[in-house]
Q: What sequence folds into this?
């Protein structure tokens, strides 16, 4: 089907069933691409590229400092503790907040928790929340076709060189190429109209800095010195940003190139089991593309998905409701191999 006409919206009440709605499936015509209204270029494109370069380039450079630190002494438990204290909630802000709640509306929650998840996701420094959602909804609308912001399979040439170019584009290159970025008014009008998310979106820089201040404060509080605070900011800030960025980027690149397809989809999405623990369950990516609105991406006994466990816990605690799950019958209809459900 074409997605070129009319605004993209999330499923309404009558459509919120266990089956994934058709809103974000790839268009049927192989030559169909997005309309101009679906693409949004930054107002200051070169400035945007410089800021993106700083955000993506600074953490790897700071890893040189980490290497020097590890060469001169053993790794402290405090470093790992602060890294995990920051990685898990902020990672969940991306996976549970940005992705399953705000992009796909896989469950519902209160305004304060919606705002908190938005803030945590923003601390990942992956861009303002509404832009993140618009790009991801556009990715689902045109997955691995003309219009996909970060497909590794489009116009990169053949052979191993073309494959490497495609993977590089899908991993980080697309961040500097604005030709297919999703228009916020077109792909995220619900969030543009949401005052809670609108505030989080406008205060992106503030929450990004808070995500650095917290590990500094933790390090200084526990270690008792400014040096301990700086070390905490190194591990809970720079290292955490680097790892979380490249885990997220790997979903865009590796999970559309390597792995296993469990369900029939119109794209190259794959399940990549070794990446699932680091991505908190996002790497069950073929499952997700088969059923985009499912809150639970791990659909087999061995497909552990921490984000889905958290959403289920929120549901049991009364903090989340209308959690979308996919019935075994629905899974069996799309399954490529038997047994469909393990």
A:
């Amino acid at each position: 089907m074409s997605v070129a006409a009319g605004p993209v919206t999330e499923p309404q009440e009558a459509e919120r069933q266990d089956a994934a709605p058709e809103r974000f499936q790839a268009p049927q015509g192989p030559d169909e691409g997005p309309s101009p209204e679906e693409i949004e270029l930054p107002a200051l494109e070169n400035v945007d590229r410089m800021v993106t370069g700083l955000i993506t380039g600074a953490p790897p450079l700071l890893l040189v400092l980490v290497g020097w630190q590890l060469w001169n002494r053993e790794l402290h438990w405090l470093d790992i503790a602060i890294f995990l204290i920051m990685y898990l909630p902020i990672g969940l802000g991306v996976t549970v907040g940005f992705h399953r709640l705000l992009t796909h509306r896989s469950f519902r929650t209160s305004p304060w928790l919606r705002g908190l998840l938005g803030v945590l996701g923003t601390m990942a420094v992956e861009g303002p929340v509404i832009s993140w959602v618009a790009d991801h909804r556009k990715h689902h609308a045109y997955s691995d076709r003309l219009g996909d912001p970060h497909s590794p399979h489009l116009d990169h040439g053949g052979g191993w060189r073309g494959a490497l170019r495609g993977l590089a584009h899908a991993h980080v290159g697309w961040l500097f190429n604005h030709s297919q970025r999703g228009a916020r008014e077109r792909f995220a009008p619900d969030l543009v109209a949401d005052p809670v998310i609108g505030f989080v979106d406008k205060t992106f820089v503030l929450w990004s800095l808070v995500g650095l201040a917290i590990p500094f404060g933790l390090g200084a509080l526990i270690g008792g010195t400014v040096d301990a605070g700086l070390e905490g900011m190194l591990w809970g800030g720079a290292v955490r940003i680097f790892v979380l960025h490249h885990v997220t980027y790997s979903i865009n690149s590796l999970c559309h190139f390597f792995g296993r397809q469990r369900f029939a989809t119109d794209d190259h999405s794959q399940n990549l089991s070794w990446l699932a623990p680091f991505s908190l369950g996002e790497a069950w990516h073929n499952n997700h593309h088969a059923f985009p609105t499912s809150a639970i991406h791990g659909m087999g006994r061995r497909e552990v998905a921490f984000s889905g466990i958290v959403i289920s816990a929120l549901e049991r605690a009364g903090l989340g409701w209308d959690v979308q799950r996919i019935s075994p019958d629905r899974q069996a209809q799309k399954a490529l191999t038997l047994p469909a459900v393990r």
In short: The mean pLDDT is 84. Strands lie at 108-109, 320-321. The first strand starts at residue 108 and ends at 109. The two ends are 32 Å apart (CA to CA).
